[in-house]
Amino acid sequence: MAKNLSFSYSKMGMYKECPQKYKFRYVHMLPEQPKYYFAFGSALHEVMEYIYNPKNQVFPTVEQALAFFKTHWDSTSFDQKGYASMEKEAAGFEEGQRILRAYYGKHANTFTHPLSVEMKSTLETDGLSLISILDRIDYLGEGRVKILDYKTGKTVQREPDQLLMYQKVAENSPLIRQLVQAADPDVKEIRVEKLSFYHLPSLTELSFERGSDKEMYEFWQKVLGVAGEIRSGKFDPTPEENKCRWCDYRNICPVFTGKEYDGPSGWGAKIPNVPPPTKNPFATPSAAPAPAPAAVPAAKTDGEILSEKIDRLGALQAEEQRLRGEIIALMNKHGYQRHFGAHYRAELSTQNKLVFADKDKTVALLRKLGLLPRTLVPTQSTVAALLADPSVPEDAKAQLRALATSVPHSGLELSQAE
Fold first, then answer.
1. Would you state the pLDDT for residue 149?
2. How confident is the model at residue 297 (pLDDT cuts 50, 70, 90)?
3. Which carries the bigger pLDDT value, residue 291 or residue 54?
């Protein structure tokens, strides 16, 4: 007997977005990169489950809810959350606290226990294992229930497929029927009376009527159609420039690489860290004739190769100094002591730097002290280095320091983020 296909609203949505993306995620089982909005939403969902847990006879105070939120937030690392910087992560945490305080201010006096929270239900039907996590189920009496789903994004709008999926699961799940019958033993059938999205950032609830029989039939035919295409192995990509730009799998996708992915698969695998492909399928094709093949250049001598590498190193050093200066200026402008990139951490260090402004007096003193030959070229750094040289007498160092001015200097330490 064939095994039922594991299916959910999110899987259906990803397949409709791009079958190739579905294949990377659920066939090759390569997890997507962490997304900050998932981490933010997960933390708030955890708190709402904590607040409304039917097992708790007393609802937690706002202080307890805030403490629970912080514990959950701190349980995942910066990298796991997916924020672009420590400042944005801190802003996300503050926004979560603001939402919880506002939520208590609006609803604390009317808290009531729901039938269930964060209920995971698996419905075996039509060759599918239909998996849904229902944020909250409220019992309205006489077998009628209300399904409420929390939203934490910037906006919220009606998503018919998600609502109809909830209705299908709630009205046919044996587990949900058992929950309702435990509260009301005479109930024979479950009916979803209301479907609601609650937008936590704006404290706004949007409610929708149950799907009609016609809507449910058309929706289910669509579900079975998608499931059939997955079973038959139809994973052709559906590229669009804006959609592909933000896809985690772009660098290994056949649309860009020109070949099927044959790298590691399985839950232990990660998206391979490969350079971006040079092929751009969205580039406008040129009507110009193909250029004639270029002549093969003569082999370079070792001397020419060495000269090129020296010039390249010099250019990279100049670029590094320019980038350091720009990074330091931006961090100073915003008062940042530490800032994160995707892979590296930059941290400012402030120290006093000695500046020898009068070059002639400095050279004359070095000549008098017999130290001029030891500097090779008397630059700011070579003269300052004499002050750290243990072989230079202390009285000579004191005379050099008298010529120098101490100026605050911002240094930049760059290290790989953990």
1. 95
2. low
3. 54
What one-letter code names the amino acid at 227? A
Could you tell me if 119 and 371 are in contact, meaning their C-beta atoms sit under 8 angstroms apart?
no
Question: Is the pTM of the predicted complex or chain greater than 0.70?
Answer: no
Model confidence pLDDT, tens digit, residues 29-82? 999 999 999 999 999 999 999 999 999 999 999 999 999 999 999 999 999 999
Q: Token digits for 266?
A: 């399985």
Token couple for 9: 């609203």
Q: Is 291 left (phi over 0), alpha (psi -120 to 50) or beta?
A: beta
Q: Say which residues have a Cβ less than 8 Å from residue 163's Cβ, sequence separation at least 6.
A: 195, 208, 211
Location of structure tokens 């050093």: 317
> 197: closest CA among 138, 146, 149, 132?
149
